[in-house]
Amino acid sequence: MAVEPRQPQETAGAQPVGNSEHWVDPEPWHVHREQPLTPEQERYYTASQWRLMWWRFKRHKVALASMWILALFYVVVAIAEVVAPYDAQTRDPLHIHAPPQPIHLFHEGRFVGPFTYGYQMTLDMTTLKRIYEPDRTVVQPLRFFCRGDDYRFWGQWAGDFHLVCPAEDGTFFLLGTDRLGRDMFSRILYGARVSLTVGLVGIAISFALGIILGGVSGYYGGWIDNIVQRLIEVIRSFPMIPLWLALSAALPPTWPPIWVYFGITLILGLVDWTGLARAVRSKVLSLREEEFAQAARLLGAKPRRIIGRHLVPSFMSHLIASATLSIPGMILGETALSFLGLGVRAPMTSWGVLLNDAQNVNVVAIYPWLMLPVVPVIIVVLAFNFLGDGLRDAADPYS
Predict the structure, then answer these.
(1) Which CATH superfamily is domain 64-78+186-395 in?
(2) 341 φ/ψ sector (left φ>0, alpha ψ -120 to 50, else beta)
(3) Are residues 295 and 252 in contact, defined by beta-carbon separation less than 8 angstroms?
(4) Handedness of CA 216, 220, 221, 223 (dihedral sign)
(5) Are 173 and 134 a contacting pair, CB within 8 Å?
(6) pLDDT tens digits, residue range 71-113?
């Protein structure tokens, strides 16, 4: 049975081309399009890579919440002197190892506003333990936007303004006090400045080393690639924690605390760059033969410009996600070193230094609030991990 050839479907205004059966429509394509793009579709198709990444990131609700939590932490870190009710070194010898004071709003059925009850302290002559009981007859209203302990903002400018202060001749120990009568809540806020900035400064060092060495290794290859890769393998062959301990122990004990802080940060950055360098190398290896890289090379661009202006920006979103996932490791590294006495030292305050006071199990059993500095560590590490997962999914164009 013969099958008749299908006749071409003529469109209004179409004209045949030569002797062929093909028809060409002289009208623009958009004239005959049945369903024009909506404004939302138009905005999506014309959006930049970073805007698409932001839209995908917003769909990750946990990562978005983690971003706001971390933003809150870093805002508080920036103004820790103002938010903390006491200075980090203020001592109250009358309230040593005092338990947390809860905030109340009502006293005897009457609304008073935020206040705390005073303490009555007795000494157990058998165990020599201080026993604190709330005194319901002493109401201590909290003061807001007030004058309190003197401080030097970021160690530079003198001030005494606080967001919240205890009542006149009263106390406000939201998370209790330590063995010297220092407010734990204030010390946790001051310690966050050191612990959180260690991660940022350390990842900046690691980021720079990873991009430079990984980019050079992937772009040039050959003996340069062999040297960089063998160096990475040597560094990664060492156990991480013993390496941290050895390098930290090498810091001179006579160094001032600020030098020790930068020394610990440098150690963490110098040890952590290897994974990022390998990620950069693999990306550069796959992209250096692409047309846009070849075009830049033919136009006379130098390797430094090709790597920095063309290759690295094309996968910068992946690098940011990888860097975000590396910050928690540095925070935990500083906390562990300070906890073991090899990191930041007094009078500087960090979360690891605060946890150093909780090494004795008997002390923790009697004064459990000394373990509270571990709570912000857990929150920040989880938030960074969730944020990194969200950024990694958003940076994946096939997610």
Answers:
(1) MetI-like (1.10.3720.10)
(2) left
(3) no
(4) negative
(5) no
(6) 999 999 999 999 999 998 899 888 999 999 999 999 888 888 8
